[in-house]
Amino acid sequence: MVINDELTTTLRQVGLTEKEAVVYVALLSLETGTAYQIAQQCEVKKPTVYVILEDLRKKGLVLKIPHAKKALFSASDLGGYLREQENRLKTAQSIIPKLHALGSGPPSSVYFFNGLNGFIQALGFKFETMRGKTYHSFYSVLAGGSKEIKEAYSKWDRKAVAADVGFKIIMAKEGGGKYYKDIFDLAKAGEDIEIRLLEKYDYPPTTTIEIAEDFIRILDETREQATIIDNKQTADAMRQIFQVVWEKGV
């Protein structure tokens, strides 16, 4: 089956991963089906389909129907999922004043981004304020990151380098694929990029953390989600932690 790219792209924009979107669209076309039928429909491996169906079930997008022989699945209405996302965002926004009250420093703003477009929007956050300054970053191994995410990273890196933005990057020795090679090529070309490789990567390798001058950007490439904490005091504290790891070296 040829999956509708427009549908899957839209679903990714509201928080689904690439494979979740593909499986959900395939199930919509079947109305009801077994994991095997869904796998055949979307050309995703059956074991992977089982995992994705469980993730979609937890999001309220799939119903599991008891059956005497094999489990059957059906797609739930997307509207319920979107309403739940809206409610979560409202809840998160409602506690921001309480978070502000807890700190002695200036208040923080916390922003949440979902889907490919949201991810790209997060990359561009306060871009102009970082001209001539340096990001201190823990890079993930990009496990599970889509081709579009890696392309977004590469495009943003080139734009940042052209704007005289510097980078100090800590990453694992293994992982990253072609994207890691592009970063090393930029560093070798004399750009303001320094890289330290860690033999043992102690922090979760599937999350990228970028510490800017006055905000922190946390990126989950697999789920295509981003969180930004816009607070200089928090960024300064995280930069000190980064420096400890940086000095640890290879």
TrEMBL record:
Taxonomy, superkingdom: Bacteria
Pfam families recorded: TrmB
Cross-referenced Gene3D superfamilies: Winged helix-like DNA-binding domain superfamily/Winged helix DNA-binding domain
InterPro entries hit by this protein: TrmB-like (IPR051797), Tscrpt_reg_TrmB_N (IPR002831), WH-like_DNA-bd_sf (IPR036388), WH_DNA-bd_sf (IPR036390)
Domain Transcription regulator TrmB N-terminal, first and last residues per copy: 11-77
Listed transmembrane segments: none
Coiled coil stretches, renumbered: none
Full protein name: Transcription regulator TrmB N-terminal domain-containing protein
